[in-house]
């Protein structure tokens, strides 16, 4: 397959739900496809929190993209961070370490997703990691388990308290699931493992500026979820806005205007999303408008105004209030692919994109979830089983599905966690080091002090 | 349990085979035990190469130490890097980030293992990672799979060749297993996944200064192993000494005195071990002698001359030519624990430590291994099955054993790899960045440029 094969060349940016399902739809069709992604894997984001809390390995939720698409001979997968889309020239420029690649396209599907939003306070990121990537999840895994380790040997009661206080910001499904799992760790899993601390004394606080947890699930499920969380040991603090974050704590302004500080070392930011910067890049070169969260007001057929060859799908779009969930990306990716194929076959009058809401689910803790499908709401153990089943079947990749199921059996039946390992890079990663100051771990603050000298010597 | 419980207090340094099996032997006995380790996990080193080559997750081979010992109420596990052993005062000083702990002991078992040895050329470490820790294995995983990714988009034929040339230094079991697996990746697993490169064209070179692979296995098995490796596609280059290593290659001096350079980006160092620096620290304060590899000439009963309260076990010792293998550490750890218990019961005349050789095994590739147990040597598929069984049963931890078995079924029956994910920190980790120069990935060369500014602003 070469760039000059003469076939229509579709470039897809992103290997999440949108990009992958577009590629699968185009696989083995009469087009050439190049999928460019910053990572080598397709990430199943809904289960990231389980990587962070030691239930799953990263491989379980992130099969390798070129493995999934290996048999689609017309699809080429390349690793690259997209630096520029040239709408006029119809090219995409990407880099991978010090390699630069320019990929021309006939049609473009931009499925670059969303990152964490700190609502303009980007300096929060250093102290309160988000939950959008494997890197985030593994960093949080190191911090969460590492906090208990450090608390065990701490001789400073204040620091110990800070280490044993966990704050999750954002009471959507991700935040609820994280808070529930950390509470379960503290109350059950780690109960017998320490001698100087009682992990059960850890505080897990879930904050949100809204008056409800899971606000999109409706009042009944929202209240049920809150009660489950509190039963689980999570302190739910609503109408609480985060005003600042630093190494040692988080500052909160409550609904009544009062301000307070929570002293805590581990903060998880699950509060907002911002569309990929590629959205703004497209807005600069076309007439498409971008909203405050960086998402694009695309046409009814998911294209950029004036540029029917450019589709945008998934978390990057703002269309008819459709929610930024996996199903939007999957359906959008497929729709864009079908549109392209239809055009090549001469089909006209493509129907506008219509999102089909397949429901929402969130799990609170072992054996407890809330689910809303159409008009049917249900909770408890049955909802939890349904949650497991839906997510298992929604995952792409057979082997990681089996491995996930096994890890769930280990965790939920055995009450154990198989995936707690962190590397030094993760436990004492740059953010943690910055938290505690470079003097805290001198050998790692200057990574490979021998190496640093080498660099200087080689440079001189 | 407190330091002043009045019971005999045993401190164990290290959570590898030696430390863990000593702790298990002392568990629920009438002593207090504190196990101090730099990592939170017990590492099953023989399978590290499978984490590096995408077969296993890190959780599969590294169960959490305090989880394994959770039910031994007299055993306390603490995370700490031992900075100092004060033989006179009988204390161990350790640090964990910015926390310092001083632990007094009545008996001490030093089981701190060994690190990679570069035979005095420590600057090799930056370019040729070893295989002694989870960090190493995940870094290598990122490099190995990342090399194929980068080769796919490389427009420089020389760089592509360097990316597709892999060199493993050291033809002991670790090196043989790594080389075999990388060859299998290139020849089989990745075969269908790329469009611009043919992974099968990758070169995998196994180097050793000795004239045989697996020199300790005897000539017959050694020759068999070499033939298997070559059939697998590995180029075996013996009597080849490494004289220098840099970003782009490795310099070799052959047996005939000739010198050459192999251009290669990914180098794995599996060639030598050096006893923990704690050995030298003990040598400074006692009469124990240390050999060139940093190992201690302990007494027949594994104690330090003149200090019967200090035991040294496993890779740290040089005793009667016993090999630095897992069984030595396991048997030594148990022996030391039993000695301590025996003394407390008033038993005298402890028999000297005698190592029982349970045989050696090494796997070459799927369905092919060599095994030597006593006088019985066998090879091929049966040896491979035996290798799997022995390693599976030798692992500590039930759940990770099940998970490992599942991952083996996925890999060996399914011909797939479930655990290929690397984080940015791993693929573009400090060593990789240093390899290609900080300009290669500007956003990561200054980790979190926002953060760096913050640090400066906070400091000013």
Summarize this structure briefly:
Two copies of one chain form a homodimer. Chain A is α/β, with parallel strands linked by helices and about 450 residues long. Chain A is built from 16 helices and 21 strands.
Can you characterise this structure?
The structure is a homodimer of 460-residue chains. The first copy, chain A, is built from 16 helices and 21 strands. With 460 residues, chain A is of the alpha/beta class. In chain A, the strands form six sheets. Chain A has a six-stranded mixed β-sheet, covered by helices on one side. In chain A, strands 11-10-9-15 form a four-stranded parallel β-sheet. The longest helix of chain A has 20 residues, at 134-153. Chain A starts with 8 loop residues before the first strand and ends with a helix. Residues 428-460 of chain A have low confidence and may be disordered. At the A-B interface, helix 3, strand 3, helix 5, helix 12 and helix 13 of A face helix 3, strand 3, helix 5, helix 12 and helix 13 of B.
Shape of chain A: globular
What share of the residues of chain A does DSSP label as strand, in percent?
A: 15-25%
How are the strands of the biggest sheet of chain A laid out side by side? 3-2-1-7-18-17
Report the oligomer.
homodimer
Output the CATH class name of the largest domain in chain A. Alpha Beta
Q: Helicity level of chain A, as a percent range?
A: 25-40%
The pLDDT mean of chain A sits at 88
Number of distinct helices of chain A: 16
- Structural class computed from helices and strand pairing of chain A: alpha/beta
CATH architectural name of the largest domain in chain A: 3-Layer(bba) Sandwich
Say what the CATH topology of the largest domain in chain A is: FAD/NAD(P)-binding domain
Low-confidence stretches of chain A: 428-460
Instruction: Give the termini distance of chain A in whole angstroms.
Output: 46 Å
Radius of gyration of chain A: 23 Å
Number of β-strand runs of chain A = 21
Count of all domains of chain A: 3
Protein name (chains A, B): NADH:ubiquinone reductase (non-electrogenic)
Family (chains A, B): Belongs to the NADH dehydrogenase family.
Catalytic activity (chains A, B): a quinone + NADH + H(+) = a quinol + NAD(+)
Organism (chains A, B): Janibacter alittae
């Amino acid at each position: 397959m070469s760039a000059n094969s003469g076939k229509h060349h579709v470039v897809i940016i992103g290997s999440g739900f949108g990009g992958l399902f577009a590629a699968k739809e185009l696989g083995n069709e009469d087009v050439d496809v190049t999928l460019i992604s910053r990572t080598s894997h397709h990430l199943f984001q809904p289960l990231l929190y389980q990587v962070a809390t030691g239930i799953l390995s990263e491989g379980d939720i992130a099969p390798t993209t070129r493995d999934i698409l290996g048999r689609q001979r017309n699809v080429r997968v390349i690793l690259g961070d997209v630096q520029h889309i040239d709408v006029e020239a119809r090219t995409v420029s990407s880099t991978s370490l010090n390699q630069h690649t320019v990929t021309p396209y006939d049609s473009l599907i931009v499925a670059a997703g969303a990152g964490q939003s700190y609502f303009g306070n980007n300096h929060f990121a250093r102290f309160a990691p988000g939950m959008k990537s494997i890197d985030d999840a593994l960093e949080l895994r190191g911090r969460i388990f590492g906090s208990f380790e450090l608390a065990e040997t701490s001789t400073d009661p204040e620091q110990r308290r800070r280490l044993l206080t966990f704050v999750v910001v954002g009471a959507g499904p991700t935040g609820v699931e994280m808070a529930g799992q950390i509470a379960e760790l503290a109350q059950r899993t780690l109960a017998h493992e320490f001698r100087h601390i009682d992990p059960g004394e850890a505080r897990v606080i879930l904050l949100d500026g809204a008056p409800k947890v899971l606000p999109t699930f409706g009042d009944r499920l929202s209240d049920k979820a809150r009660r489950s969380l509190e039963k689980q040991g999570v302190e739910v603090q609503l109408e609480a806005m985060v005003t600042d974050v630093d190494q040692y704590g988080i500052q909160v302004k409550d609904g009544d205007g009062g301000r307070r500080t929570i002293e805590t070392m581990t903060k998880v930011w699950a509060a907002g999303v911002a569309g990929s910067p590629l959205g703004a890049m497209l807005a600069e070169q076309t007439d498409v408008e971008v909203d405050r969260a960086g998402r694009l007001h695309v046409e009814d057929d998911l294209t950029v105004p004036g540029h029917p060859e450019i589709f945008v799908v998934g978390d990057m779009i703002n269309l008819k209030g459709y929610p930024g969930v996996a199903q939007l990306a999957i359906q959008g990716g497929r729709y864009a692919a079908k549109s392209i194929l239809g055009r090549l076959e001469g089909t006209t009058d493509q129907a506008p994109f219509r999102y089909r809401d397949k429901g929402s689910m969130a799990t609170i803790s072992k054996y407890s979830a809330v689910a809303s499908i159409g008009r049917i709401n249900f909770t408890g153990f049955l909802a939890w089983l349904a949650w497991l089943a839906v997510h298992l079947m929604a995952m792409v990749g057979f082997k990681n599905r089996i491995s996930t199921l096994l890890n769930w059996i280990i965790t939920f039946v055995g009450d154990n966690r198989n995936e707690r390992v962190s590397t030094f890079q993760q436990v004492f990663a740059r953010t943690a080091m910055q938290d505690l100051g470079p003097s805290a771990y001198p050998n790692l603050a200057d990574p490979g002090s021998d190496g640093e000298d080498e660099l200087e010597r080689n440079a001189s």
